[in-house]
TrEMBL record:
<dbReference type="GO" id="GO:0016887">
    <property type="term" value="F:ATP hydrolysis activity"/>
</dbReference>
<dbReference type="InterPro" id="IPR049945">
    <property type="entry name" value="AAA_22"/>
</dbReference>
<protein>
    <submittedName>
        <fullName>General secretion pathway protein</fullName>
    </submittedName>
</protein>
<dbReference type="InterPro" id="IPR003593">
    <property type="entry name" value="AAA+_ATPase"/>
</dbReference>
<feature type="transmembrane region" description="Helical">
    <location>
        <begin position="279"/>
        <end position="299"/>
    </location>
</feature>
<keyword id="KW-1133">Transmembrane helix</keyword>
<dbReference type="InterPro" id="IPR027417">
    <property type="entry name" value="P-loop_NTPase"/>
</dbReference>
<dbReference type="InterPro" id="IPR052026">
    <property type="entry name" value="ExeA_AAA_ATPase_DNA-bind"/>
</dbReference>
<dbReference type="InterPro" id="IPR036365">
    <property type="entry name" value="PGBD-like_sf"/>
</dbReference>
<dbReference type="Pfam" id="PF13401">
    <property type="entry name" value="AAA_22"/>
</dbReference>
<keyword id="KW-0472">Membrane</keyword>
<feature type="domain" description="AAA+ ATPase">
    <location>
        <begin position="42"/>
        <end position="185"/>
    </location>
</feature>
<keyword id="KW-0812">Transmembrane</keyword>
Length: 479
């Protein structure tokens, strides 16, 4: 209806997975790199998880496009199968002929093994991709593991890519699946888009659809990100309805009024969203104090890279059970095991931890929601707007923040480009070395001056250069 009005050639925000509109954010590219690495390794299973609508299908399609021509692929889009149905589906997908009558698991398995050996001899790689894998039964997953037992001295003859929602992580922690879990050589949890990526995503799709000018003003872009929480599928729905609202209002550019109208039509009202979002914001970048040197990221001036560390006093998931629930909702993560070391577990989801002791005014300057550890072992949630901490506060904290792009993969070019850009934007200095920029940042913003990229400094950078600051500001505006 609005295409001619805005000069568009096709619908820019259809939820159909059209490769023409494929947009790979930095997080999507990082996920793709993890999965590509897994296919090159010697393991049999690769895992991709993420909340509904975060772009798992986008990543999997991009992965399949990068596979060598000598790759045989099988797709399982309906995981509600038993063992026999799974084996039969794999045979169908690979084009393996078998007698439909009196089929047994052994006959199907023998057919598959013969096919895999023949494909390997011909220099072909066989890959199985299973979507919505959180619905797989334990017996079916065990059958897949048995299929991956077929191998040469160097390679597995069958690779399995499991794609699913966060519940898939919980499924794979079951004791009866521990052998399969140990064979996962690459895993990635896809987080929603950050604010900058949301803006690029919207503008890219509009450009592909034929837009000759910007159709969303800055306030509208921020509000779309706020309502959608950075989830691409929600972005598409909101932007489509916002364009329709702008057409109905006969305005040339989508503004906040049209985005709010779209949110109301999609049953995401301003009265509901701030309450839901405030829970996320209180703990999205959690702080729970325990000693700066205990868990730090340090800056290596010679290699110009950051390295991970081990916690001297690890914090368990059980010890922060109540505030942890809000943290999980904010990051769309599954429930962790009770006895797990929290920071180590969070690393699996591209999140970093920093523990430390700092004055409360310096903590507030981080502009992050925090948890404060109390003398009785409890925790107090505190936002940057809160007045004072509890009188029983021990002075210790732990911050959780998203890892910079390329960090976990040690992709130095990507990581260094991000780091240098953020430091120069913050310090307004262009020519200094990264070590000098770090020192200038610490001096300007009241951080402990170490001259190293410690955890506190990296947490400050990510909190001031991701979507959390804008979302907090918009929450206050809405309330």
């Amino acid at each position: 209806m609005y295409l001619n009005y805005f000069g568009l050639q096709t619908e820019p925000f259809s939820i159909a997975p059209d490769p023409q509109f494929l947009y790979m954010s930095e997080r999507h590219q990082e996920a793709l790199a993890h999965l590509s690495y897994g296919l090159q390794g010697s393991g049999g299973f690769i895992l991709l998880t993420g909340e509904v609508g975060t772009g798992k299908t986008t990543v999997s399609r991009a992965l399949l496009e990068q596979l060598p021509e000598a790759t045989r692929t099988a797709f399982i889009l309906n995981p509600m199968l038993n063992e026999t149905e799974l084996l039969a589906t794999l045979c169908d997908e690979f084009g393996i002929r078998y007698a439909k009558r009196n089929i047994t698991n052994k006959r199907l398995t023998d057919k598959l093994q013969e096919f895999l050996l023949t494909a390997h001899a011909a220099g072909e790689q066989c890959v199985v991709l299973i979507d919505e894998a959180q619905h797989l039964r334990s017996q079916v997953l065990e059958q897949l593991r048995l299929l991956t037992n077929l191998e040469t001295n160097q390679h597995k003859l069958l690779r399995v890519i499991l794609i699913g929602q966060p519940e898939l992580q919980d499924l794979l922690r079951r004791r009866e699946l521990r052998q399969l879990a140990q064979r996962i050589t690459a895993r990635y949890h896809l987080l929603p888009l950050q604010a900058a990526d949301t803006q690029r995503y919207i503008n890219y799709r509009l450009q592909v659809a034929g837009a000759q000018r910007e159709l969303f003003d800055n306030a509208a872009l921020k509000l779309v990100h706020y309502y959608s929480e950075g989830i691409p599928r929600r972005l598409n729905l909101l932007c489509d309805r916002a364009l329709l609202a702008a057409y109905n209002d006969q305005v040339q550019v989508v503004g906040k009024a049209q985005v709010k109208a779209a949110a109301r039509e999609l049953d995401v009202s301003p009265s509901q969203t701030p309450r839901r979002m405030s829970i996320a914001l209180v703990t999205t970048m959690v702080i729970a104090l325990v000693g700066t040197a205990a868990l730090s990221w340090w800056f290596n001036s010679s290699a110009n890279t950051a390295t991970t560390l081990a916690a001297a006093q690890p914090v368990s998931a059980a010890s922060t059970q109540q505030p942890l629930q809000s943290l999980l909702r904010a990051w769309q993560l599954p429930q962790p095991p009770a006895d797990v070391e929290l920071c180590r577990w969070l690393e699996e989801y591209q999140l970093g931890c920093v523990q430390g002791r700092l004055r409360f005014d310096r903590i507030k300057a981080l502009n992050l929601p925090v948890l404060l550890q109390l003398q009785d072992g409890g925790w107090q949630a505190v936002t940057s707007e809160s007045a004072t901490p509890n009188a029983n506060w021990t002075g210790e904290f732990l911050a959780v923040f998203p890892l910079p792009p390329g960090y976990q993969l040690r992709a130095e070019d990507t990581y260094q480009r991000w780091l240098g850009e953020q430091l120069r934007q913050t310090t307004a200095q262009q020519q200094d070395s990264l070590a000098e920029l770090v020192t200038a940042l610490q001096q300007q913003h009241g951080l402990p001056v170490s001259g190293e990229l410690d955890g506190l400094t990296l947490a400050w950078l990510t909190s001031h250069h991701t979507d959390f600051g804008p979302r907090l500001a918009m929450q206050q505006e809405q309330q």
